[in-house]
Amino acid sequence: MKKKPVLSWMFYDFGNSAFATTMMAAVLPVFYYDVAAKGVKESLAISYWGYSQSIAVLIVAILAPFLGAISDFSAAKKKFLMFFAFMGMTASILMAFVGEGDYLFASVLLILGTIGFSGGNIFYDAFLPEVADEEEIDKVSAGGYAFGYIGGGVLLAINLMMIMKPEWFGLPNGLIGTKLSFVSVGVWWLIFSIPLMKNIKEEKKVNQKRDSSYMKIGFKRVSSTIKELPNFKQLLLFLFAFWLFNDGISTIIKMATIYGRDLGIGTTDLITALLITQFVGIPFAFFFGWLAGKITAKRALMLALFIYLIIVILGYFMTSALHFYILAVCVGFVQGGAQSLSRSIFGRMVPEDRHAEFFGFYGISSKFAAMFGPFVAALVVQMTGSGRYGILSLIVFFLAGMILLKFVDIEKGVEDAKNFTDPEQKTIIRT
Q1: Distance of alpha carbon 171 from its chain centroid, rounded?
Q2: How many CB atoms sit inside 10 A of residue 121's CB?
Q3: Cα separation of 67 and 60, whole Å?
Q4: Within a 13 Å sphere around the CA of 217, how many CA atoms are in the beta-carbon half?
């Protein structure tokens, strides 16, 4: 294993995961509700947050094929990675200048930061085959996730202390601690990006000629995969199920904190609970991998989704910080397991020589699907005036996903993948 490049690659995940924890999941949603949307009707604050999330995901989904084509054909992955990373860092730091009632400014910064975070990850992922040997690639990929959990969790813990105990840091109050936590995300992300910038040398592209624009290449790949999907009926059925239940999962991640704040749960309790989710999720991701070997991956995934269904129902009745803690632990039980099992089930039903193409579509299509959950939840909240009904609306995503998943025959899907022969013998370029 090429230790220095591998560690440098992992440290980027260690750094940028702070955006996912502090900005997307824990601190910023509370700040948005209490400060940026101050003076706005409470239910509208939740709706505006949900709409902002949907817009950000939609833009990322549209950009993804284009950015993937650039990654494949250019020798400038590092430059593009740092461009998007700096966009995310800058948006995080500028969030400290958001004042009371500046919800539009905050929404714009959230959208730009999310584009920077997700866009940078496209080029970050593309470096994996270059830094890891073929026999080590799964191990290195898992190591990146582990570094991300740790890095995002560590800074979130520090930020929690800045908000709870601002005097420890020489700060006058928790609001200043909150704003400095946004600055800390940008700085943390920058510091742990330096090893990648310094130690990873980009491979020169050879025989990678293109006869059209990056945009055309990107969307041509997506349309090519869509045309192939009817040959894989079980895979297609699973994709529909995945789009539904994964949208429910991602919406819980993005909306839970601002919903809790709407119920009057304190900032400290909200952030602490999500910090617990972060660390509980690590061992239980491995647990569900073990469980899949005992009862099959499909049954293990159904169990995880059933628990999510209970979480949503209990979330409707949640009234106290204790309830939020309990639900946060429950989410930690199933979050990593549901996502990792989904990826492994999908991978089993993909033809052996088409992994890159189909996983590229898997990522892009899930991003498009992920905008509907926050939008539906935000719309329900706006129509009913209650965050409870917005959370309850996610039942539809989980129930529909579970019903479709029940009809997926994974073994038949694996057989279809093994028997598939590409009549045109296309050469698929990794996306």
Answers
A1: 32
A2: 21
A3: 10
A4: 20
* 413, two tokens: 């899907």
Single out the residue of 374, 360, 13, 41 nearest to residue 221, CA to CA: 360
Q: Answer for the pair 240, 362: CB distance below 8 angstroms, yes or no.
A: no
What are the angstrom distances between the C-alpha of 150 and each of 1, 112, 144, 280? 22, 25, 10, 12
Report d(CA 400, CA 240) in Å as an integer. 9
Cα(78)–Cα(13) distance, rounded to whole angstroms?
15
Amino acid at 372: F
Q: Write out pLDDT tens, residues 189-224.
A: 999 999 999 998 876 655 556 667 777 777 777 787
Instruction: Identify whether the C-beta of residue 408 lies closer than 8 Å to the C-beta of residue 237.
Output: yes
Residue count (the chain): 431
**Lookup: tokens for 360:** 């590229």
Alpha-carbon distance of 188 to 17, in angstroms, equals 10
Tell me the CA distances in angstroms from 375 to 108, 263, 310, one per residue in order.
17, 20, 22
How many angstroms separate the CA atoms of 331 and 311, rounded? 8
pLDDT per position as a tens digit, 88-105: 999 999 999 999 999 999
CA distance 323 to 273: 10
Report the 3 state secondary structure along 3-62: HHHHHHHHHHHHHHHHHHHHHHHHHHHHHHHHHHCCCCCHHHHHHHHHHHHHHHHHHHHH
Type of residue at 392: L
Placement of tokens 């949640």 in the chain: 318
Query: What are the percentages of helix, strand and coil residues in the chain, rounded to 5?
Result: 85, 0, 15
Query: Looking at the whole model, is its pTM more than 0.90?
Result: no
- pLDDT for the residue 427: 42
Give the C-alpha separation, 122 to 212, whole Å: 21
What are the distances in angstroms from CA 413 to CA 43, 82, 236, 382?
A: 44, 39, 9, 41
Cβ atoms within 10 Å of 186's Cβ, excluding its own: 24
Which pair of tokens denotes residue 383? 């129509």
How many Å apart are CA 296 and CA 409, to the nearest integer?
12
